[in-house]
Write a structure and sequence with these properties.
With about 230 residues, the chain is an alpha/beta fold. The protein is about 30% helix and about 20% strand. It is built from 9 helices and 8 strands. Strands 1-2-3-4-5-6-7-8 form an 8-stranded parallel barrel. β2, α2 and β3 form a beta-alpha-beta unit. α1 packs across α8. The two termini are about 20 Å apart.
Length: about 230
């Protein structure tokens, strides 16, 4: 079973960002997750356009840019101009009057279009957009801050979403409070990837490569699987 792992760069050590990017790439990270927050759509400010542009220039690995901003259509060009073709851009449907227009701009720029679904957003309200996007980022915590607690009711919504994957042709990604127990449960169900932050990846004593190898093995059932993740959390 294969699944992607993406590093939440708002949790990285900004005192040595270049080294963080290099170490994560050498460790085999699949993509860099970039959280952009405007202090309006979510009650926090996070990474800047310049942070995003630097990582885009320093890394060969793709970027997954998560725009937690109001009316992204107004300024989407600022982000698209600094990314590479093939990078992913997620918007929140609730943040835009006509989200399909913004998604089309992302497509026209050669990027991968995605939507992010908040814990309180139902699958039914975004169903038509699932025919447009290539990726769906499922928020299992309310957006805006790292280190929050998982909301258990989101699990049923994820199950409903995963049943639509083959028909709608999108990939689904987990974002928020991602522990090994969540990967072991939802990767076999069809979740395509997981955003890793402070719960599993950053602020640990082990090298990134060792940590990622153990996370990738955590879907193994039984005693062997339990032992493989003992030192990850």
């Amino acid at each position: 079973m294969k699944f992607e792992l993406t590093a939440s760069m708002m949790c990285a050590d900004y005192g040595c960002l270049e080294k963080e990017v290099t170490r994560l790439e050498e460790a085999g990270i699949d993509s860099f997750h970039i959280d952009i927050m405007d202090g309006r759509y979510v009650p926090n400010f996070a990474m800047s356009v310049n942070d995003m542009a630097y990582i885009a220039s320093a890394a060969a690995t793709p970027l997954d840019v998560h725009l937690m901003i109001e009316h992204p259509n107004n300024n989407i060009h600022i982000f698209l101009d600094k990314l590479r073709k093939g990078d992913t851009v997620y918007i929140h449907p609730e943040a835009e009057y006509h989200p399909s227009t913004t998604l089309q701009k992302i497509i026209n720029a050669g990027m991968v279009p995605g939507i992010a679904i908040n814990p309180g957003t139902s699958v039914e309200t975004v169903c038509e957009m699932l025919r447009i996007v290539k990726k769906v980022l499922v928020m299992t915590v309310n957006p805006g801050n790292a280190g929050q607690m998982y909301m258990p009711y989101v699990g049923k919504k994820i199950a409903n979403l995963l049943r639509l994957k083959n028909e709608m042709h999108f990939k689904a990604y987990w974002d928020g409070a991602c522990g090994v127990d969540k990967i072991r449960k939802f990767a076999p169900m069809g979740m395509d990837g997981f955003v890793l932050g402070t719960t599993l990846l950053f602020g640990k004593d082990a090298p990134y490569r060792e940590t990622l190898e153990k996370i990738r093995a955590c879907h193994i059932s039984g005693k062997q699987g339990e032992e493989s993740v003992t030192n990850v959390i």
